[in-house]
Amino acid sequence: MKYRKIGKYGTKISEISLGSWVTYGASKDIEVTRSCVKRAYELGINHFDTADVYGYGQTHAGAAEEVLAEALRDFARSSYVLASKAFWPIGEGVNDRGLSRKHIYEACNASLKRMNTDYLDIFYCHRYDDETPLEETLMALDDLVRQGKILYIGVSEWTAAQISDAVHITKSMNLNPIAINQPCYNMLKRDIEKSVMPCCDTEGLGLAVWSPIAQGILTGKYVKGQKYPGGSRASDAMATNPLIEEYLTDENLDKVAEIKKIADGLGISMVQLALAWIL
Question: Does this model's pTM top 0.70?
Answer without folding.
Answer: yes
